Amino acid sequence: MSQGRVWKYGDDVNTDVIFPGRYTYQIMEPAEMAKHALEDLDPEFAKNAKPGDVIVAGKNFGCGSSREQAAACLRAAGVQAVIAKSFARIYFRNAINLGLAVLQCAEASVALQTGDEVEIDFSGGRIICGGRVFKFFPLPASVIGIIEAGGLIEYTKKKL
Amino acid sequence: MGKTLTEKILGRKAGREVSAGEVVTVSPDYYLSHDNSAAIIGEFRKLGVARVRAPEKIIIILDHIVPAADEKYAQNHKTIREFAAAQGIPNFFDIQHGVCHQVLSEAGFALPGKVIVGSDSHTTTYGAFGAFAAGIGRTETASIWATDEIWLRVPETLKVEFSGSLPAGVYAKDAILKVIGANGADRANYEAVEFRGPAAGAFSAASRMTLANMAAEMGAKNACFEPDEVTLDWLKGRARSDYEIVRSDPDAFYEATLKYDLSGLEPQIACPHTVDNVRPVREVEGEPFHQALIGTCTNGRLEDLEAAVKMLKGRKIHPSVRALVLPASRAVYLDALRQGFLEILSEAGCVILNPGCGPCLGAHEGLLAAGEVVVSTSNRNFRGRMGNRDSEIYLASPATAAASALEGRITDPRKYT
User: Fold this and answer.
1) For residue B326, which of B288, B364, B290, B289 has the smallest C-alpha distance?
2) Partner B contacted by A59 (CB < 8 A)
3) Measured between alpha carbons, how far is B209 from B366 in angstroms, rounded to an integer?
4) CA distance A36 to A19
5) B226-246: pLDDT as tens digits
6) What ranges make up the beta strands (E) of A9-136?
7) Which of A16, B15, B105, B189 gives 20 to 30 Å between its CA and that of B341?
């Protein structure tokens, strides 16, 4: 079980507001990326994010560019999981490849609010908030293999 | 049950018959990267292998910030050049060529039946020529450099069927904006989009690239047109290798079919800050703006510049606005130069930029200040994408952008046709 505090956002949170294009070739260090996470959506986020925080959003989270910093910056900011109604496909892949948990759960996406404290049971597929329990389908085994290895680089290293 | 073009291409690569929903591991024909190759090189080095697996499949095209805007970008480019030379990567295109999607297509790599992955979300563009082409991330590209393999889920296919013909002043860009506006930015998430119907076949190769490019903005994994005479004409003298024409079976299964009669279509515009916030241009006519951008991988081909030239020939842009012209490639630039288009556009008051991504991704060459508004022919209008977070981006066709530049306010281009 892993605990975290919720930051709630809306539908179609795109990669430009998660990590602006003006930084994509300027900032390479994860810790530096974290300082600009969600800058054009919520300038308060990066200043106040804490390890274990959870982002909750609506549909199509991560739409737009294939830039991987949009996943890397959240992970560097300490975000342990993004819970959304749905994810854009490149973002979904990128997040897994970098070891950022992306959980699809429509119910939690609607019910959870900024400031809520949640617990996530990754293997059991449960999000718990106070007395409420939201279920999500655990990720497929092939994908869990990548996350368990610590991301695609470590996973590929083992295969080579 | 028959198969879709996408199922067939992935099935052939996997060496078995496959259907939507299955996961296949394939060896792609080509893998593209651009300025982000420097970051990919960093990830590749973590893998602990000395050599890339298949250098001839790697295509690197520098386009995002060309020429280098500062020393960081310059170092990025240098790292990439040195890596390409050291690894013997034959298909390295330096800064003079243009936007990766246009250059890769012009150079004859985008071919029917091929599987192409690219670390850029608009990799979908090559579906214009009947390839399976999908965007991926940097880490994944690094892994493919080492393994020559990727896993892909075979996508369901959404059919977009066009009938009728476009009225004067209305273009492929208006058609795709209409589709995205009516169906939402995630309508095709994880899916293949297949453009079909009699009017799909009537689109030029350039217009097909506009449509396939923009399919990324409805979430599509890949987009495709069935190869036909237009495709074969385009490929003549370009194709880099043999290729196989793949078409969907008549009884293939489609997740849904969206039908559009183009005859009744009017110019469309995506309003800030999402690509699916689409309205007819006439509904926002008269809105003031500050800069027009005509070009990019979405609308920077010769037919696009020609549409702008028709509006701007012998006229001047309005003194209250700036207009930037961004040809998609050097080949387009040269054609436009030889046909006198660049002279007309420059005479009209436009700034002609070098082929590349320019200000589209918000890094250089014409960014916006707080409170400024751009009418752009590019593919994304997310908040802050082209500069300050308090600037605004409208997306439209080159004709709409040019007509608007003439009047200094958003303008329906049909009054000039």
Assistant:
1) B364
2) yes
3) 25
4) 7
5) 999 999 999 999 999 999 999
6) 54-57, 81-84, 101-104, 117-121, 126-129, 132-135
7) B105
Beta strands in B62-190 (DSSP E): 91-93, 115-118, 132-135, 150-153, 157-163
Q: Which of residues 74-103 of B touch A (CB under 8 A)?
A: 76
Domains, in order of start, for chain A: 2-159 (3.20.19.10)
The pTM (predicted TM-score) of the whole model is: 0.96
Q: Which position has the token pair 């009054």? A: B415
Q: Cβ(B6)–Cβ(B154) under 8 Å?
A: yes
> Which residues 139-198 of chain B have a CB within 8 Å of chain A?
139-140, 142-143, 146-147, 151, 185-186, 189-190
Mutate to test the interface with A, among B25, B140, B154, B297 (most CBs of A within 10 A): B140
CA distance B100 to A107: 41
Q: What percent of chain B has pLDDT over 90?
A: 99
Please count the other Cβ atoms lying within 10 Å of the Cβ belonging to residue B374. Answer: 28
Q: Are A129 and A118 in contact (CB under 8 A)?
A: yes
pLDDT in tens, B153-189: 999 999 999 999 999 999 999 999 999 999 999 999 9
Confidence of residue A160 (pLDDT cuts 50, 70, 90): confident
Crossing angle, helix B71-87 and helix B37-46, to 10 degrees?
60
User: Would you call B124 helix, strand, or coil by DSSP?
Assistant: helix
DSSP conformation class of B306? H
Q: In B, which residues are within 8 Å of A159 by CB distance?
A: 147
Q: Do A25 and B363 touch (CB under 8 A)?
A: yes
Least confident of A24-28, A62-66, B344-348: A24-28
**Mean of pLDDT over chain A:** 92
Q: Per the CB < 8 Å rule, is A64 touching B382?
A: yes
User: In angstroms, how far apart are the furthest CA atoms of chain A?
Assistant: 46
Calculate ∠ Cα B24-B21-B33, nearest 5°. 50
Q: Which of A17, A26, A89 sits opposite B382 (nearest CB)?
A: A17
Task: Report how far residue B192's alpha carbon sits from residue B19's, in angstroms, rounded to the nearest whole number.
Answer: 13
Q: How many CB pairs under 8 A join A and B?
A: 126
* B9-33 average pLDDT score: 96
- Phi, psi at B256, each rounded to 5°: -165, 165
* Record: contact A142-B151, CB cut-off 8 A: yes
CA distances from B218 to B19, B192, B311, B357 (A): 22, 10, 30, 21
A131 CA to chain B: closest CA distance, Å?
Answer: 33
- Which H or E run contains A48? helix A43-48
> What's the ipTM?
0.89
Q: What domains are defined for chain B?
A: 5-242+253-260 (3.30.499.10), 267-416 (3.30.499.10)
- Return the exposure string of B259-268: e unless at least 16 CB atoms fall within 10 Å of the residue's CB, then b: ebebeebebb
CA distance B211 to B202: 13
Distance CA B3, CA B15 (A): 15
B57-83 burial, b at 16+ Cβ within 10 Å, e below that, comes to bbbbbbbbbbebeeeebeebbeebbeb
